Write a sequence for this structure.
């Protein structure tokens, strides 16, 4: 695995945040990549993706969004929202002197990307939206909310592997035991010898306070503004219960230049290590400075 430097910064509301910074091979002559994970995930989801992109000549920053991974837990759960997350990203960019970047956002990370572009349009030079868009399917949302923030009795790493298998098998039907063990190590942290979910359970509180909208006119407008003005790639799992083929087709109609790559045998959300995802992202990035 390519080495990275841990970057830390303090948000405007005083929370300590972290990111992994992978140096691009051959220097920083190309636009950097900012990787943003999903709702209950963390930067470890990019521990294979980031080194490969860095080896191709791009500096890569894989963030732990507040409340996840190495970043601090917010004492005010109301701050667990896309606008605050996007502000955190922009503060890191300012700290590191990055004016523009290519964004790779999985699920929630894709929505943060759209929000970043809404706040500071020129900051997003291009975007890879991983299995997410301005509209999502109700079935996928309900499945995620059935476990996000819910307590889980986990005593061993085998328990952790069984937990991620139970909550994600619909998305990765071909995973073997070794894959679930690796998945568990990305989902849990070691807490004095025992696995613990690597996020603040309070991230689910804002989601529980209001009905989840599967489609938003504001989000649709912001997506069109993003995808019509800069290169955008939608990666979707062919089995996804969140980003269906019908939703992807509607996104394409609203933004004809949108590129779409469907990953066979995978649901929500591709890990971006699948051969088809690698090929699609590599081809896409060849068109971006």
């Amino acid at each position: 695995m390519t080495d990275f430097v841990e970057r830390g910064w303090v948000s405007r509301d005083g929370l300590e945040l972290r990111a992994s910074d992978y140096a691009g091979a051959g220097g920083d002559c190309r636009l950097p990549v900012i990787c943003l994970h999903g709702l209950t995930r963390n930067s470890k989801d990019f521990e294979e993706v980031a080194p490969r992109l860095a080896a191709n000549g791009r500096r890569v920053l894989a963030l732990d969004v507040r409340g996840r991974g190495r970043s601090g837990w917010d004492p005010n759960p109301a701050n667990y929202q896309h606008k605050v997350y996007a502000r955190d990203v922009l503060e890191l960019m300012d700290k590191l002197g990055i004016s523009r970047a290519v964004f790779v956002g999985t699920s929630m990370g894709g929505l943060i990307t759209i929000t970043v572009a809404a706040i500071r349009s020129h900051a997003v030079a291009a975007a890879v939206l991983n299995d997410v868009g301005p509209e999502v399917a109700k079935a996928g949302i309900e499945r995620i909310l059935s476990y996000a923030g819910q307590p889980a009795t986990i005593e061993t790493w085998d328990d952790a592997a069984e937990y991620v298998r139970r909550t994600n098998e619909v998305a990765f039907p071909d995973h073997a035991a070794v894959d679930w063990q690796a998945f568990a190590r990305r989902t849990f942290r070691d807490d004095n010898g025992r696995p613990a979910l690597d996020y603040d359970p309070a991230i689910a509180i804002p989601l529980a306070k209001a009905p989840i909208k599967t489609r938003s006119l504001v989000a649709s407008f912001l997506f069109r503004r993003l995808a019509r003005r800069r290169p955008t790639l939608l990666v979707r799992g062919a089995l996804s219960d969140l980003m269906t083929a019908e939703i992807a087709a509607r996104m394409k109609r609203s933004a004809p230049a949108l590129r779409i790559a469907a990953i066979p045998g995978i649901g929500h959300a591709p890990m971006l290590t699948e051969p088809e995802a690698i090929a699609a992202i590599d081809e896409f990035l060849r068109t971006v400075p």
Remarks:
- Residues 150-198 form one domain.
- The radius of gyration is 18 Å.
- Residues 82-96 form the longest helix (15 residues).
- The chain is about 35% helix and 20% strand.
